[in-house]
TrEMBL record:
UniProt domain SusD-like N-terminal: residue ranges: 23-215
Compartment list: Cell outer membrane
Taxonomy, superkingdom: Bacteria
Classification lineage: Bacteria, Pseudomonadati, Bacteroidota, Cytophagia, Cytophagales
Entry similarity comment: Belongs to the SusD family.
Organism: Arcicella rigui
Positions of the RagB/SusD domain: 448-603
Keywords: Cell outer membrane, Membrane, Signal
Protein name as annotated: RagB/SusD family nutrient uptake outer membrane protein
Main location class: membrane
Amino acid sequence: MKKIKISILACTLFLSLGCEKILEEKPQSQIVPSYFNSPAGVLGGIAGVYNEIRNQWGTEGFSSEMQAGTDEFIQGASSGGGPIHTFNGLNGTNFGSAWGTAFTCVNTINGVLKFGQSIDLPEATKKQYLAQAKFLRAFWYFYLVQTWGDVPLHTEFITVPSQAAKRDPASEVYKLIIKDFTEAAADLPDKPTAPFLGKAATKPVALFFLAKAYLTRGWLTNSQADFTEAAKISSDIIANKATYGLDLWQDFGDAFVPANDYGKETMFVSDHSNDAKFGYYSVGGGASGGAAQNLTPWFTNWNYPNNSGVNSIVNANGVLVNSGTSLMVRDSYYGRPYQRIRPNSVKQTTGEVAGKNYFLDQAFVKRDVDSRFANTFYTVYISNQSITNTATAANNKRGISYTTQIGVDTAVWLPDFEVPGAPQFVGTRPFKGIVVPPSLWKADVFPAIKKHMDPSRGSNFNDPSTRPVVITRFAEVYLVGAEAYLQAGNKAKAAELLNVIRQRAAYRKTNTPAQNAAAAEAMLIKESDVTIDFILDERSRELFGEWMRNQDLVRTKSLVRRIKLWNKEAAPYVQDFHILRPIPQSEIDRTVEGPPFTQNPGY
């Protein structure tokens, strides 16, 4: 991994704070304004806020809040149940992992902006520091306003604790967000520049979030001006991609190769490290969660060591039953079996999409030419242990004895189509492993997301991932632009941008040039094909599992409609008021001076 990142490097400037929160939501007395009266203090404040992004993106609770209970995901076998998946009982005591973190970060940045104006630095360097701060304040407020709507708006550095708080209109919050992103974009460099290396905020990153903020506000207010501005900014980023050092990989799968984590398609990340001095975990300790740990690779991973019995059978109810010695043991390549959420492959039994499931029949429907399904999910598990299966073993219906070869034989095949004879045969041919077609997928057996996997961790393959959590990829610029053009009434331009993404998805290294050309042609769409539902499906194909699905559905006013259409678990409970999340009860309880702190309606 890269060795110099602002969020790691600058933490050394304030190790006495352990790279923990600089300020709690109620500021602590040991943090005084003079801390920010030096270049080191300002840089340390910025680094601390970057660190707090690491404390959310990629961690378990926050990732569930951003993705669970949508059209894309339903519960895995170890989800723990709960309202986040179904909306049933969702309230201020079981949601809001980032509320306090966000306001801590905002206050820290307000300190940086207040005192950073007078630090002794060259003017160009000072401008970059302050631009980073403005970007980060807007970044956190953008998350807050999308999640909760009206929120407290703070632009002054708070040093005196208060038990009073109020919610400010979302319209005022958006004004600050747009102002901060605009000013940050004006002063940030085109490409990462020391000390903000790796993939910290740059000019195109600030412009991208500015476009997305305009797009989101446009949906709220039906503002054609906002849609037009979002479309223009997106097109400008694409037109200047060479200046910014950005581009799409020719092969969609290359965007997720670990060696490309900081490559041309990556725009903005939350960095991670296994360096012990940062204290996130002990290498080799097999840490299982906690602050700043990237567990992204495993949330959608099924329990392949415990549910891949060689003689698994289908019972009288048509359910796959695990039987026999496991064909697999846990390893770093296939990852940890968390099975918190899983792709929504459950067929709907009623309504306009009866008989279909979102995963295969709607999102990844053109799997023959679209490479994104194959590049996003594991469907083949190669044996990582050798077992001998005798002809007389219980539930072995194959009638033969054999031994699996490590690294050669397929242990589990999860085809995206029905296979006669599954799970022990392909037609009439005995299969050494097991075949699990879509009709047998369930809460503990399903295709896992592979694009975030990290097979090169420390001495213990249960250690957290040290790959960065990629928050923004260049591909999303095209998708945001397409959505903005659609809403602005220019479907032709929307189709043009979508076709760039779709034709890239048609490319496969294993194809001949003629095959790639034919696939690219097959992926083309016309402007008449472009609807908001088509764009949401396209976002699934391109961004599945990348921490934004709830925001996508909320922004486009599609949450309730699409959950009722596709998600049988959540459909009975989701209601219109769920477009906003419940204010944490702790915030309401702490506000004991002045008017009460109000909860969002419906909770």
